[in-house]
Specification:
Elements (H helix, E strand, L loop, with lengths): L2 H6 L35 E7 L2 E3 L4 E3 L1 E9 L7 E2 L3 E3 L21 H5 L8 E2 L6 E8 L2 E5 L9 E6 L13 E6 L2 E7 L4 E9 L8 E5 L5 H17 L15 E2 L7 E9 L2 E6 L17 E6 L1
């Protein structure tokens, strides 16, 4: 199960789903069925991805919590729809944002200095056609980093303050992540639908990849996979993708910066799951999972 190749050998800051046969397209919730966030009364941002760009972001928004829905059409070869929202560092605009190569292994410093609110990918490879999450947008100059996936950047501005009494989803499971850990701080992951709150308390950005593991796998064994994958890639750099199986990734969230919380729903079966972050480390460049940011959980 060549996890590192599947999730990190892609344009920087993007987490892709594993290579798998495309199933009959389905949404995360059935047509006509109430979504898990509908009763919150939050403003909805319907972001539509096409090969030419990403639409659905107004030029100006008020600071606050938003229900973000992603849907659309992938480009050739894409196995997921990825929408990366990014608050530019103070005093930076889209016009002054440095140019960078999205395929370069080197992440420019300003990426670590800005802000990411989170998000959720649409796993096209597993038949998903849309995703939903709740996240918070704060005042500043923002952009949809379409450049990372070969689409034009989409700038927008957020003004004002987030209301303290703004509604948020009621989480059944609370997960905190930072350098270099995942901790479940409230509730317990169970078979069925789980409403996750995911909070980043790290000085560096992080995101969550959740994937099924063989029963009984330990965290040490899970961690050793990343080292072995690195050695395989260094030994055979042109063999990426050969011999991969069809193990699905259950969840890939968007990148989050310090003191951000996002909410999303995930449906699980009983079994063993791995949590990992593949954000390149700001100082040494290695994926955080290879520096110990991984965990194994059993779902009853």
């Amino acid at each position: 199960m060549n996890t590192r190749m599947r999730v990190t050998a892609i344009p920087t800051l993007l987490a892709a789903a594993v290579t798998a046969k495309i199933a009959t397209p389905t949404a995360l919730f059935a047509q006509g069925e109430a979504g898990p966030f509908d009763d919150l009364g939050l403003e909805k941002l319907s972001l539509v991805v096409s090969p030419d760009g990403i639409s659905g972001i107004p030029e100006e928004l008020a600071a606050g919590h938003y229900l973000v829905e992603v849907s659309g059409e992938p480009m050739a070869g894409e196995t997921s729809l990825d929408v990366t929202l990014f608050r530019l560092p103070d005093d930076m605009t889209i016009e002054t944002m440095p140019e960078f190569d999205p395929n370069s292994p080197i992440i420019p410093e300003f990426i670590y200095e800005g802000g990411f609110p989170g998000g959720r990918n649409v796993d096209i490879s597993q038949g998903e056609t849309s995703s939903q999450c709740v996240l918070t947008l704060t005042a500043g100059n923002w952009t949809v980093l379409g450049q990372l996936i070969g689409r034009p950047n989409v700038p927008f501005t957020v003004t004002g303050e987030v209301l303290e009494d703004a509604p948020t989803p009621t989480a059944t499971v609370e997960i905190m992540m930072g350098e270099m850990y995942f901790h479940i701080t409230g509730g317990e992951l169970m078979a069925g639908k789980n409403m996750l709150s995911l909070t980043s308390m790290g000085g560096q950005p992080h995101f969550l990849v959740m994937l099924p593991l063989p029963p009984g796998m330990t965290n040490d064994e899970f961690g050793s996979m990343f080292a072995s994958d690195m050695m395989e890639e260094e030994a055979s750099p042109d063999s990426e993708g050969e011999g991969e199986d069809d193990t699905p990734v259950v969840l890939v969230t968007g990148v989050q910066s310090l003191a951000t919380t996002m909410w999303t729903e995930v449906e699980l079966e009983s079994g063993t799951y791995g949590l990992a972050c593949f954000m390149p480390d700001q100082h040494v460049g290695m994926p955080h999972a290879m520096l110990g940011m991984h965990a194994v959980i059993d779902v009853p």
